[in-house]
Amino acid sequence: MLTQIINAKILTPQGWLKDGSVIIRDNKILEVTNCDLAVIGADVIDAKGMYVVPGGVEMHVHGGGGRDFMEGTEDAFREAVAAHAKHGMTSIFPTLSSSTVPMIEKAVETCNKLMAEKDSPILGLHLEGHYLNIKKAGGQLPENIKDPDPNEYIPIVENSPCLARWDAAPELPGAIQFGKYCAAKGILPSIAHTQAEFKDVKAAYEAGFTHVTHFYNAMPGFHNKREYKYEGTVESVYLLDDMTVECVADGIHVPPTILRMVYKIKGVERMALITDALACAASDSDKAFDPRVIIEDGVCKLSDRSALAGSIATTDRLIRTMVEQVEVPLEDAIRMVSETPSKIMNVYDRKGSLAKGKDADILILDEALNIRCIWQMGKIIENTLF
Predict the structure, then answer these.
(1) Computed from CA positions of residues 192, 193, 197, 200, in that sequence, does the dihedral angle turn out positive or negative?
(2) Quick one: pLDDT at residue 236?
(3) 56-61 and 89-96 as β-strands: parallel, antiparallel, unpaired?
(4) What is the homologous superfamily of the domain 2-53+355-383 according to CATH?
(5) What per-residue string of b and e applies to 356-370 under the rule 16 or more CB within 10 Å gives b?
(6) For residues 209 and 344, what is the distance between their CA atoms, to the nearest angstrom?
(7) Average pLDDT over residues 339-347
(8) Which of 210, 142, 153 is nearest to 177 (CA)?
(9) Model-level pTM?
């Protein structure tokens, strides 16, 4: 099947291409061009001067559509993925909160199976825990949290070809060795739920922890111990120029002013946007998978209001937050939900930008930043344009 999108403002890796067209053959981008001449045999779609941009690549999301990836079932995975896809997420790394080994094994089995399907939007599994600092547990299940144990994590890694990322607090006993092992296996170790100071963060970075989970959340900033002052995880991460970060850009987990500071210091190339969404995202439900969690003020919280517990955000909300509240250029907001996470997760060879030969994951946005049409691997899955 041949499709041509014409009359578009196209975001390419080189910048905006005005009055251009994107040609799709089956599930791939055949060409991106500034020529609007109709291609013989193509189904022509008029973008009406709207923005044509790459689809979102979600590297940290727990669920959606009323389902949570911790359920581990095919139905839960499919329904959560489909719910987020309708909001501009065309590729996904399903995320498990701190889980038991049987829960991880069940999710791995499902993830392996679904990734093997043709044109699957699932790119790999992300484990957020359970090797976290209990003092920064936040919405994580405390009964599952423990120190890294090679007798546990080595068999999991060896039997989980789908595993793409695993988070940990680097100050825990054995965490540096854990990070080295994951990095050697091609799995991204990421700093999360931590009380790490500079020496811990630097050691972690040198061991392979090149990324930071939901930056600013569940980690300390500049602080005092009695009369002396110490850098927190936040300042330590800023000092390491090449360390990448992700932020929950719902305007609540991290205030717009702080999102702007991250953007100014880390830049588009090292700042990814995530939803960290729970099951209630992209859903009519007001209930989270975790009974301890409530929805209030447009965000998920523990019921005692001691911590945020996740978001109800979707990809389109991330884009609008960054443009309307943080006041970054649209092209940068798009890159931070597509190009940057693709590069961090090592899938930029096929995802994250509109270029010849890449997967046909494409969004059309109007001037109000509403998503009007979505192609996922060349198939239209949402359309209010025509």
Answers:
(1) negative
(2) 98
(3) parallel
(4) Urease, subunit C, domain 1 (2.30.40.10)
(5) eebbbbbbbbbeebe
(6) 12
(7) 98
(8) 153
(9) 0.96
